[in-house]
Design brief:
10 strands, 17% strand, D-Maltodextrin-Binding Protein, domain 2, single chain, 318 residues, alpha/beta, 5-stranded mixed beta sheet
């Protein structure tokens, strides 16, 4: 569910329109906070939009602005520069940002397992990950894609060095549907759902079933400076967001209504299918430090990270 890095100067120009938090608000007024999404709004964000529509942020005294990412948006740098209080980051991007010297902290997982997978046509020759040997696999070009392929093929007893990889960007659905590749990397809750809805028989190999630990793919993140300066704000956002995701699990149709009320251009049937696929993996729960340490080791072993990650510093463990 991951994007190129922009120059900080460009990112800050974009962020200037966002404004900062509620430090200049009148006494008794809601505290302002800006949250930058990882991608265009979709079902995985339903808990956030449910919390806005149901007034959970308002109940907590938070006036939350949700921003979609743009081409010039580099969310980690916006957080570090204080131009946004919170952002949703792919967990690998959080690790990479810390490795680059940005003191960011994950404060809440949005999903409880990886969303990454290898997708193959159900009517094709790839029946299990080791069948990718000698086959063409489309990847986006991101290091995490390479890690997914390597992990799955190795865990299934194959040789990842024999997999032929081609960079297709974010065109997994079109490439697999047209038969240009034998398999692709993608998200089982997004591209996987789209392929199945288009009537394309698909085999889905989820990475946590082939070598990877059950790490939380998407993480609500803030900067160390914001966390230390205004811990009450971050705690309030986490609590309200947790309520939103609890509602999304308990009443998915209501959460879908809330998402579409704020983002009416979305296809309802597509988002309903994605929300159904996500199911209980959206459940709110604290970070599991044991899983996080296994994830950090997996990222290091597969080249996503270049040195060991301090899990206790990278995540708020409650």
């Amino acid at each position: 569910m991951r994007w190129g890095t922009a120059l900080l100067a460009v990112a800050l120009l974009w962020a200037g329109a966002i404004g900062c938090g509620g430090s200049d608000a009148e006494p008794g007024a809601p505290s302002g906070a800006t949250l930058v999404l990882d991608f265009t709004p979709n079902a995985v964000h339903s808990g956030i939009y449910a919390a806005r529509e149901r007034g959970f942020y308002a109940d907590a005294g938070i006036d939350l602005t949700v921003r979609q990412p743009g081409e010039s948006t580099d969310a980690p740098k916006l957080l570090e520069a204080g131009r946004a209080e919170l952002a949703i980051l792919d967990i690998h991007d959080l690790g990479i940002a810390r490795e680059r010297g940005l003191d960011l902290v994950g404060v809440m997982p949005l999903v409880q397992r990886p969303l990454a997978a290898v997708l193959a046509r159900g009517d094709g020759p790839v029946r299990r990950p080791r069948d990718l040997e000698g086959r063409v696999v489309g990847v986006t070009g991101l290091p995490s894609d390479e890690a997914v392929v390597d992990s799955e093929v190795s865990a299934d007893g194959g040789d990842p060095g024999r997999v032929r990889r081609v960079t297709i960007g974010f065109n997994a659905v079109a490439s697999l549907a047209a038969g240009r590749v034998d398999a692709t990397t993608g998200f089982w809750n997004a591209e996987g759902v789209t392929l199945q809805r288009q009537g394309i028989p698909t085999r889905v190999f989820k990475v946590d079933r082939y070598g990877a630990p059950p790490y939380p793919e998407l993480v609500l993140t803030t900067s160390r400076e914001t966390l230390e300066r205004d811990p009450e704000l971050i705690d309030a956002v986490v609590d309200a967001t947790t309520r939103g995701y609890a509602l999304a699990v308990r009443e998915p149709q209501q959460a879908l209504d809330d998402l579409l009320a704020e983002v009416p251009g979305l296809d309802r049937a597509e988002q309903a299918a994605q929300l159904h696929a996500l199911g209980p993996d959206l459940r709110p729960a604290p970070f599991d430090p044991v899983v996080l340490r296994k994830w950090a080791t997996w990222d290091l072993e597969h080249g996503i990270l270049q040195r060991p990650l301090d899990v206790e510093a990278a995540f708020q463990l409650r």
